């Protein structure tokens, strides 16, 4: 309760203390060593499929399952595969073992080999998560 009495008796002192805490906290955050926040480089290849007008269930059945099976059958050193089906979009994330040097083009070519010719397009992107 002493801080409440102090705030009622000397409100300017409380404002000065709050400003000091805010400024010193920002200053020390900038000076903080970067080892606390290490850079994590997980090799992930994300393949994004677009097919206008396709429902999420059909996207999963017609595109995502085929591309997942094509990727797992033809690309080595895969840790795991995640996928998400949305309306007109499908996202396949391929997590690769960290020691592997894999080009995103290999994953996309594996996807395209397993699919029939359809009016769909894919975008590939290597990301670090």
Could you please describe the fold and organization of this structure?
By secondary structure, the chain is of the alpha+beta class. It folds into two domains: 35 residues; 86 residues, Multidrug efflux transporter AcrB pore domain (Alpha-Beta Plaits, 2-Layer Sandwich), CATH 3.30.70.1430. Helices cover 45% and strands 26% of the residues. The chain has four helices and four strands, in the order ααβαββαβ. It has a four-stranded antiparallel sheet with strand order 2-3-1-4, with helices on one face. The longest helix is centred in the first third of the chain and has 21 residues. The radius of gyration is 26 Å and the shape is elongated. The model has no long low-confidence stretch (mean pLDDT 78).
Largest sheet: 4 strands, antiparallel
Over all CA atoms, what is the radius of gyration? 26 Å
Given the structure, what is the number of helices? 4
Q: Spans of 5+ residues with little confidence (pLDDT < 50)?
A: none
CATH architecture title of the largest domain: 2-Layer Sandwich
The amount of beta strand, in percent, is: 25-35%
Instruction: Provide the CATH topology of the largest domain.
Output: Alpha-Beta Plaits
| Helix-strand sequence | HHEHEEHE
In total, the number of domains comes to 2
Highest-level CATH class of the largest domain? Alpha Beta
Molecular shape: elongated
Measure the end-to-end span: 46 Å
Fraction in helix: 40-55%
The CATH superfamily of the largest domain is known as Multidrug efflux transporter AcrB pore domain
Count of individual beta strands: 4
Protein structure class: alpha+beta
């Amino acid at each position: 309760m002493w801080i409440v009495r102090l705030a009622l008796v000397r409100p300017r002192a409380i404002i000065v203390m709050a400003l000091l805490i805010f400024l010193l906290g920002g200053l020390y955050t900038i000076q903080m060593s970067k080892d606390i926040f290490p850079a994590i480089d997980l090799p992930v290849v994300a393949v994004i499929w677009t097919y206008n007008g396709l429902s999420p269930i059909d996207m999963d059945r017609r595109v995502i399952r085929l591309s997942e099976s094509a990727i797992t059958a033809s690309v080595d050193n895969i840790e795991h595969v995640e996928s998400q089906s949305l309306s007109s979009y499908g996202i396949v994330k391929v997590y690769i073992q960290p020691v592997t040097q894999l080009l995103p083009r290999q994953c996309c070519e594996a996807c395209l080999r397993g699919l029939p010719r359809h009016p769909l397009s894919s975008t590939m992107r290597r990301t670090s998560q």
